[in-house]
Amino acid sequence: MAVRLIIIDLTNGLLTDQEMTGPRTGAGEMLEALCRQYRLAAFTDSPGSGPEFRSRLEELDLGGFFETVTTSADLGAALSPSTVLHIAATVGTPAGQTAVISVRPQIVDDLQMAGIVALLAERGTPVTDLPQALAWMTAISSG
Description:
By secondary structure, this protein is of the alpha/beta class. The protein has 6 helices and 5 strands.
């Protein structure tokens, strides 16, 4: 089944610098590329709510790309297979059509063990490389 929804784990500055004062180089272009092919959702381990975090993303011109922004404070849990299923259901996408991008190896391992397509974004990798890597990974997982 083809991937339709990408959940981007924003914990640890995947799209922004660590202080969240500015977007990483190429973050907007990467999100635009992904939006051409997928629906996007965001997750972060944050003490604030999804709407609060979305407003911070909007200040950086990154908030408008996401259909939903969810935090661990909203769900009372860190990113896991069950939170992925919850986010997918929230936007009306079947779990089997959902993939995750994260910089956290343990999260990626846990999701993959649960049968969820998950891409590890290595630290230092340009974010502009992620759409191509994701396309390759989803083609492999669906073939």
